[in-house]
Design goal:
Blueprint: H1 2-59
Amino acid sequence: MEILLALVVIAFAFPLMVLASPLLLYVVPLVVVGLVISYIVRGREHRGKLWHWHHREDHT
Protein backbone atom coordinates (compact mmCIF):
# COMPACT_ATOMS: atom_id res chain seq x y z
CA MET A 1 0.00 0.00 0.00
CA GLU A 2 2.75 2.45 0.95
CA ILE A 3 4.70 1.49 -2.19
CA LEU A 4 1.65 2.22 -4.36
CA LEU A 5 1.18 5.58 -2.64
CA ALA A 6 4.85 6.41 -3.20
CA LEU A 7 4.57 5.45 -6.90
CA VAL A 8 1.47 7.63 -7.28
CA VAL A 9 3.24 10.57 -5.62
CA ILE A 10 6.30 10.08 -7.88
CA ALA A 11 4.04 9.73 -10.94
CA PHE A 12 2.41 13.09 -10.13
CA ALA A 13 5.57 14.81 -8.88
CA PHE A 14 7.86 13.86 -11.79
CA PRO A 15 5.87 15.61 -14.56
CA LEU A 16 5.44 18.62 -12.27
CA MET A 17 9.21 18.70 -11.70
CA VAL A 18 9.83 18.43 -15.46
CA LEU A 19 7.32 21.22 -16.13
CA ALA A 20 8.61 23.32 -13.24
CA SER A 21 12.33 23.06 -14.08
CA PRO A 22 12.17 25.47 -17.07
CA LEU A 23 10.02 27.81 -14.96
CA LEU A 24 12.58 27.63 -12.16
CA LEU A 25 15.34 28.48 -14.65
CA TYR A 26 13.41 31.66 -15.50
CA VAL A 27 11.99 32.46 -12.04
CA VAL A 28 15.12 31.99 -9.90
CA PRO A 29 17.28 34.50 -11.85
CA LEU A 30 14.38 36.97 -11.92
CA VAL A 31 13.98 36.68 -8.13
CA VAL A 32 17.74 37.08 -7.60
CA VAL A 33 17.87 40.12 -9.91
CA GLY A 34 14.84 41.63 -8.16
CA LEU A 35 16.44 41.17 -4.74
CA VAL A 36 19.73 42.68 -5.94
CA ILE A 37 17.95 45.69 -7.47
CA SER A 38 15.85 46.26 -4.33
CA TYR A 39 19.00 45.97 -2.17
CA ILE A 40 20.85 48.51 -4.35
CA VAL A 41 17.88 50.91 -4.32
CA ARG A 42 17.51 50.60 -0.53
CA GLY A 43 21.25 51.08 -0.04
CA ARG A 44 21.21 54.14 -2.29
CA GLU A 45 18.23 55.62 -0.39
CA HIS A 46 19.93 54.95 2.93
CA ARG A 47 23.19 56.56 1.79
CA GLY A 48 21.22 59.50 0.39
CA LYS A 49 19.54 60.05 3.77
CA LEU A 50 22.86 59.83 5.59
CA TRP A 51 24.44 62.25 3.11
CA HIS A 52 21.57 64.72 3.52
CA TRP A 53 21.82 64.45 7.30
CA HIS A 54 25.57 65.14 7.26
CA HIS A 55 25.09 67.89 4.68
CA ARG A 56 22.46 69.58 6.84
CA GLU A 57 24.72 69.22 9.88
CA ASP A 58 27.59 70.91 8.01
CA HIS A 59 25.39 73.87 7.03
CA THR A 60 24.16 74.64 10.55
